[in-house]
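Predict the 3D structure for this chain.
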Amino acid sequence: MKFPAHLTPMIESAALPRGGMWEGCAIMQYLCNQHGLTQFYPADPAARAMIDSAMFYLVGTLYPLVARATYPVFGFPLYPGEVGDSDASAAKKEEARKAAAAALAEPLEAMRGFFLANGPFIGGSTPSIADFKFASTLEFLAGTDYPLPQWARTYVAATEKALGKAYAEPAADVRGYIQYVKSQRN
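Done. Predicted structure below.
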């Protein structure tokens, strides 16, 4: 099998050692490196380290909580070993989902207090690939009626404004899906 992880997003390219790769952050890093997109992924090692650190924190700490808090609402499958993927009662699954949502406050504050402390974006005055990942992650919280802090709403709006259609068009798809899911609950 060419891509055994069964994950999206993924890309295929003859330029890659195995003909392709997956994982969104790795793909963004590769594309920026391949095409010299230093405006999104700077060549300076210190600036790049901050962006890499934010992305690793996002995928390793924040996103697992987002998944546990939102995937049950959207009907997405959870990973084996998760309460949401078990034969636990619906009440226990909802309790676990709410606990994950409650736990989001700390990593969200870490993102704001550390990664966004020196400018409107993780990369400073302009969005970086870490901002692409963070802002799009925040979009999913809207589907659970999570009380997104005002700074986070302002941040998403600033990211969308700075990136224009490149952000707005895919975000509209996510927002449309969220509205669809919400309409099915009523």
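The first strand starts at residue 10 and ends at 12.
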